[in-house]
Amino acid sequence: MHRQIRALLDAGHEVTYVAPFTHCNVTPPQEIRAIDVPRAVGLRRGHALNAARAALRKGVRDADLLLIHDIELLFALPRRRPATVWDVHEDTVGALDTKTYLPPSARRMLPGLLRRIEHRAERRLHLILAEAAYRDRFAGDHPVIPNTTYVPETPPPLPGANRVIYVGQLSEARGALEMIELARRLRPHGIRLDLVGAADPEVRPALRDAQREGLLDWFGYVPNDHALRMVHGALAGLSLLHDVPNYRQSLPTKVIEYMARGVPVVTTPLPLAASIVGRADCGVIVPYGDVDAVAQAVLRLRDDPERRVVMGAHGYAEARGHYHWPDQAREFVARLEEWATAPALAPARTHAALA
């Protein structure tokens, strides 16, 4: 909504957006045509998939192009549809490690099935890749358009001294349990932890208990633009992702978002995150799962305001110079406009043909 759809609206296009607005307690903006659908959760996804199939049929009636993000929607494509683009924004097989609700039999079967789905989709759809590392999964040469962020034109407020923040989905693989323990260790030092984002079912009880105990403030889902404003003035932004395949090749969007808001980053040593933070000297790299190291990094930043300000300034400059979304938005819009007027890659098929 805040990057791709905004870029299309700014270019003068009309947009229909199919999304779980009610589930996320979000009121869609007036300038789009919104179609509300239920959110797929856990193993019981049939109802949500059927609703998505009906919503897509309705949404594409007068559309010049259909853009999808989730691999599951390849099973819900309408028989009659315009040029269709799949925006590949995760390592689908690598992400299986983070889906704790899947039984062992599914974990064994799904990798091969997902690769076949990807290869069939490549022959019938246009593809956009969010990471250059995804190229190895496909035979063709597809455009890479990174999932970056809007960086303010003017430098944001200086980082503060008594609050650290995390923005994004909360799960075990994203370090939720480590952040709860971190909050416990920082509280005696007068530093509070803000968690902004929806949570996976397995970590919700621990988060609720921590909030009741007064260890942290968990705000739940907050629309992206509001969530990023909450980053302003923080002592540091946390990205404590685990070393799982889906994260290993990905541009750490939350790291870029913290940098764009002028706060130092505390991140685990995932290759791209470590490379960006180390090159820009805009934060601290800590070992996976090491809460002691994270707490020490935060306290060192708290006790060194000059270093904190320098890191925040370095991060902002790096984000503005290399990760400002409008720099990618022009190519994104141009690609969609080109594909919307080009002949289809292959005749539209039913969802079964892509299975």
TrEMBL record:
Pfam families: Glyco_trans_1_4. It comes from the Bacteria. PANTHER family: GLYCOSYLTRANSFERASE. This is Glycosyl transferase. It comes from Sphaerisporangium melleum.
